[in-house]
């Protein structure tokens, strides 16, 4: 069973045993981190020396070991704990199975090697073969299989067993020899010691913060606790940065997308994994739960059965499964990682007597479900406009299709299609976006997007679906290679590479090469381009609806867009472009140095119907404060928009905006609901619709 080994980076011991056997254990490496002079200024040298120790290599390294559950139902959680900084990965397999159940074992190993390559592409991988004590096991025969079917000789990340001239380490777990795994241990230590992150120099202040956090010996703490410790060690302005660093190393878990997530720092990731696995559970845990007396007494037995069969959870059931602990945080965590989405569709048999019950879809639980009628209905519409997301160059990771289902189900509910709930099974779905209906299929290393013939706006819906996939990929499966292919409307077996078709259209060519052999008519694919580019996910490429908002006498602009160019320029330039495309007049300072005269800015505000304040990390450090004061004095209607992408440099927790706002403007955060800025096509449509409606009705 694969194990995660994430490294500590310290000349102090910050890993300790905890009460649970699943908790990490510590071993040791010492590295130079900061000049001695800095240490002397901040801390007692004797304290640091007393905390350090040495191994044979003269270093101290701390291993935090995570034993991943091997059951398929947990595969959807990999991205949470396989970070790009990585660690050392031990992929453990049964040599007997590789010899006698070759196809199944090769598929298992291939999945794990691909998953590690995707989420931690530079991490060392150590293959460990067990059951070497069995008489029928031949290490050289195992090696031949690994070379032929898994190309281990071509994988530069696999650590070789040089002494045995093998690509793996055979282990006899039954051997009484105390040094039976000495070569494996040496390989683990050497691989961890060679990691760039181990020798990276970082501030000792950060390490002291982490050490003090772990001394608290608790599963999670509020962000304010970390802030207090960081301030104590003169790093209070670096709290988010240090948490992000240790998050990437797997030492803790900290997400920032919402205030609820930002306010919680998980010091024991096993606690989080245990909570998630109460919902995304394997058969063993499910069987135990079916006979759980507390579940029976809670009146939620039916809720649990529906969750397991259809992937739909009630809030009452989630509260029970999580022992009513940190429910809001866990809900938002699952939403942000696309493990769960809102289910807006009526479930009267489930919610009878609980009319206000909130429902959620946990789509990964549908993986092995089937629905023959659904499959037959999809087969009957395969002549519709079809796109193929092809991952055969690499592989289709577990969880991509499930997350696409979650996004589609939520979007369908947001559009109010409540009389037509999504029909979902493990690898198939039929869903409506308003009057637009489509099917989804997961086939091998492909996902097929099929528009039902005669449906409304098929090209626009395909564009939305591709935008959803891009959102899931960038958030969870960053760097995953894929290709977009279009199926010929005249031949279901003829596919064209999207980029080749785009090039052919630009060149006004009559034909384009098919995937494989043969050619096709470029004109046959015109229906795919009725809404412009299928892959453009931010800018408008097709026709957009015009707002037609008249301006009162004396006003020149619908919107004055107030922002800090330093960290919100790209977002606001995009917003201005999209508003102009929709017929609005926008005043925006697009000069990178922001050196327009103050009176010109004030005049722009007076001549605008609406003032939009775009919140970003440094928003109140420049001219925006003056602009905001002017808007308040002129009694302009004010709308607040904030950066919603935690990966953008302008992102900050919403509480930071409130704290930094001038006293005269703090009331805005109580009176006005801030709108999260959306770039993704499928989210941006609703964003601009609401924004324009607020501008239209402003008084």
TrEMBL record:
InterPro entries assigned to the protein according to its UniProt record, in alphabetical order: COR-A (IPR032171), P-loop_NTPase (IPR027417), TIR_dom (IPR000157), Toll_tir_struct_dom_sf (IPR035897), WH-like_DNA-bd_sf (IPR036388)
All copies of domain TIR, residue ranges: 559-652
Protein name: Rab family GTPase
Keyword Repeat: yes
Source organism (scientific name): Hondaea fermentalgiana
Repeat keyword on record: yes
PANTHER family tied to this protein: C-TERMINAL OF ROC (COR) DOMAIN-CONTAINING PROTEIN, PROTEIN TORNADO 1
COR domain segment(s): 205-346
């Amino acid at each position: 069973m694969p194990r995660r080994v994430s490294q500590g980076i310290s000349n102090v011991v910050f890993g300790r045993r905890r009460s649970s056997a699943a908790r990490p254990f510590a071993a040791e490496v010492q590295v130079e981190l900061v000049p001695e002079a800095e240490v002397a200024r901040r801390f007692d040298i004797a304290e640091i020396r007393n905390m350090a120790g040495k191994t044979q290599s003269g270093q101290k390294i701390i291993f935090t070991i995570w034993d991943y559950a091997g059951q398929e139902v947990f595969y959807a959680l990999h991205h949470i704990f396989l970070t790009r900084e990585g660690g050392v990965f031990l992929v453990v397999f049964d040599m007997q199975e590789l010899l006698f159940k070759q196809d199944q074992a090769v598929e298992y190993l291939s999945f794990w090697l691909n998953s590690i390559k995707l989420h931690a592409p530079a991490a060392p991988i150590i293959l460990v073969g067990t059951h070497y004590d069995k008489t029928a096991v031949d290490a050289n025969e195992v090696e031949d299989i690994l070379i032929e079917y898994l190309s281990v000789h071509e994988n530069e990340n696999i650590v070789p067993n040089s002494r045995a001239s093998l690509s793996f380490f055979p282990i006899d777990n039954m051997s009484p020899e105390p040094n039976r795994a000495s070569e494996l241990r040496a390989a683990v230590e050497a691989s961890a010691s060679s990691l760039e992150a181990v020798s990276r120099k970082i501030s000792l202040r950060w390490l002291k913060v982490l050490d003090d956090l772990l001394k608290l010996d608790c599963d999670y703490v509020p962000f304010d606790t970390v802030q207090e410790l960081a301030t104590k060690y003169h790093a209070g302005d670096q709290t988010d940065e240090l948490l992000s660093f240790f998050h990437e190393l797997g030492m803790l878990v900290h997400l920032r997308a919402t205030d609820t997530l930002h306010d919680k720092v998980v010091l024991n990731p096993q606690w989080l994994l245990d909570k998630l696995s109460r919902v995304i559970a394997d058969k063993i845990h499910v069987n135990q739960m079916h006979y759980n007396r507390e579940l029976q007494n809670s009146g939620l037995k039916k809720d649990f059965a529906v969750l397991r069969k259809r992937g739909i959870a009630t809030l009452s059931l989630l509260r029970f499964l999580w022992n009513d602990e940190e429910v809001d945080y866990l809900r938002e965590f699952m939403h942000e990682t696309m493990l769960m989405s809102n289910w807006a569709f009526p479930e009267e048999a489930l919610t009878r007597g609980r009319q206000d019950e909130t429902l959620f879809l946990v789509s990964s639980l549908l993986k092995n479900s089937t629905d023959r009628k659904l499959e037959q209905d999809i087969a009957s519409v395969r002549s519709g406009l079809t796109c193929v997301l092809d991952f055969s160059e690499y592989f289709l990771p577990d969880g991509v299709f499930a997350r696409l289902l979650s996004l589609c189900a939520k979007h369908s509910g947001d559009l109010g299609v409540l009389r037509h709930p999504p029909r979902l099974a493990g690898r198939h779905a039929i869903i409506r976006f308003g009057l637009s209906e489509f099917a989804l299929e997961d086939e091998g290393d492909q996902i097929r997007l099929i528009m039902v013939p005669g449906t409304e706006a098929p090209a626009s819906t395909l564009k939305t679906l591709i935008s959803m996939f891009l959102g899931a990929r960038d958030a969870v499966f960053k760097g995953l290679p894929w290709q977009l292919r279009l199926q010929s409307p005249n031949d279901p077996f003829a596919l064209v590479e999207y980029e080749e078709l785009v090039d052919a259209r630009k060149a006004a060519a009559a034909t384009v090469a098919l995937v494989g052999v043969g050619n096709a008519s470029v004109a046959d694919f015109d229906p795919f381009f009725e809404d412009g580019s299928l892959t453009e996910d931010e800018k408008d490429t097709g026709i957009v609806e015009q707002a037609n908002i008249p301006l009162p006498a004396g006003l020149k602009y619908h919107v004055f867009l107030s922002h800090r160019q330093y960290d919100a320029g790209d977002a606001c330039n995009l917003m201005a472009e999209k508003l102009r495309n929709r017929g609005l007049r926008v005043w925006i300072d697009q000069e990178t140095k922001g050196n327009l005269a103050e009176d010109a800015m004030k005049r722009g505000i007076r001549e605008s119907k609406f003032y939009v304040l775009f919140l970003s990390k440094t928003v109140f450090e420049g001219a925006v404060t003056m602009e905001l004061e002017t808007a308040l004095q002129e009694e302009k209607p004010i709308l607040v928009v904030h950066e919603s992408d935690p990966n953008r440099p302008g992102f900050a927790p919403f509480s930071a905006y409130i704290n930094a706002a001038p006293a005269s403007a703090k009331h805005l955060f109580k009176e006005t609901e801030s709108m999260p800025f959306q770039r993704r096509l499928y989210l941006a449509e609703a964003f601009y619709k609401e924004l324009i409606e607020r501008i239209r009705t402003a008084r």
